Amino acid sequence: MRYDDFRRSDNIDDRRDDDGGGYGGGGGFGIPGGGGGLGIGTVLVLGLVGWALGIDPRLLISGAEIFTGGGQAPTYQTDRRSSPPKSGAPSDEVGSMISGILGEIDDRWSEIFRESGQKYVGPQIVLFRNATNGGRCGRAQSAMGPFYCPPDKKIYLDTSFFRQVETKFRGCSGNACKFTTAYIIAHEAGHHVQNLLGIIPRVSQAQERAGSKAEANNLQVRVELQADCLSGVWVNREEKKRPGFLEAGDIDAALQTAAAIGDDTLQRQAQGRVVPDSFTHGSAAQRKRWFMVGYQQGTIQACNTFGTDRL
After folding, report:
1. Which of 152, 158, 167, 216 could pair covalently with 135 via S-S, beta carbons 3.0-4.6 A apart?
2. Which of these, 282, 196, 194, 204, lies nearest to 231 by C-alpha position?
3. How far apart are CA 268 and CA 192, in angstroms?
4. 198: region left, alpha or beta (phi > 0 left; psi from -120 to 50 alpha)
5. Are the CB atoms for 232 and 295 separated by under 8 Å?
6. Each residue of 220-243: pLDDT tens digit?
7. Quick check: 311 and 225 in contact, CB under 8 A?
8. Where would I find the H helices in 49-198?
9. What angle do CA 304, 308, 309 make, to 5 degrees?
10. DSSP 133
11. β-pairing verdict for 12-14 and 139-141
């Protein structure tokens, strides 16, 4: 991925030099108990690969339902910082790349929203190491990976995570990992788009009315696959705006990452078997398919995962 000419966003809260304090009241979030449904292996995998591009990691662990934990909405905390924010575009290589990716995501989605007479205000990215205050979504920890916090409209990233994608999960290799970083951030920005369009609140309500965890999980899968598709929409628009920004192997790297974090792949690694009713992000094939739908068609309308029986 060529990103030298990307517009750098200064909507970055860089906490990588913080000491990891300032978690706010209540000590953040823990692994909820009770209810069952997920084996301990799956719980551990979801905790370690909560980066499987979820929304609120507390709920990813507790059953991976957007705002419901066994049918009850979480209580968001008051955001309290332990040190003044360090804002602006970072100057280090990784931080500058992330700043550029965010700038281009914001620009393309602003164009898309403008086409339908709407205004787009992008998310803020919070960079941290090890742990930080996750605002109203509790404590953000590196083991959870990147996540989007809907009430704060922020994306939390521990930059060391992207190295783990390559070394631990084998989601990419070499220079193509730069585009994998863009794919992951674009997915989280996809959740932000869903939030702005009112999709997340509507699905949350539908989950609360769901008659079973399997039904609620199915709604969650549709949300995640739609975010995969929306990340593909961004790549489509970015390629039209900046021909040549993609390099050989970049799309394959995104598909490889999507396969590495498919629910069936993760479950097979964690417990040796696949339980489709407990899927929360979609299978490897589904994630790859919906990313490609967005990439090939380049429209929000193409990403209607709620209007099809074929996921």
Report:
1. 152
2. 194
3. 30
4. left
5. yes
6. 889 989 999 999 999 999 999 999
7. yes
8. 57-62, 93-115, 161-167, 177-196
9. 150
10. E
11. unpaired
pLDDT score recorded for residue 8 = 96
Report H helices in 74-158.
93-115
Structure tokens at 22: 């300032």
Phi then psi for 85, rounded to 5 degrees? -70, 145
The amino acid at residue 260 is A
- Report yes or no: 72 and 165 within 8 Å, Cβ to Cβ: no
First-to-final CA distance of the chain: 29
| Strand ranges of the sheet holding 124-128, from the earlier edge strand across to the other edge | 12-14, 124-128, 154-158, 147-149
Residue 68 burial (CB < 10 Å; 0-12/13-18/19+)? Answer: buried
Q: In the structure encoding, which two tokens stand for residue 258, read together?
A: 């999507």
Whole-number pLDDT of residue 41: 34
Q: What is the pTM of this model?
A: 0.78
SS3 assignment, position 87: strand
Which tokens belong to 41? 């292996």
Report percent pLDDT > 70 for the chain.
69
Contact 105, 242 (CB under 8 A): no
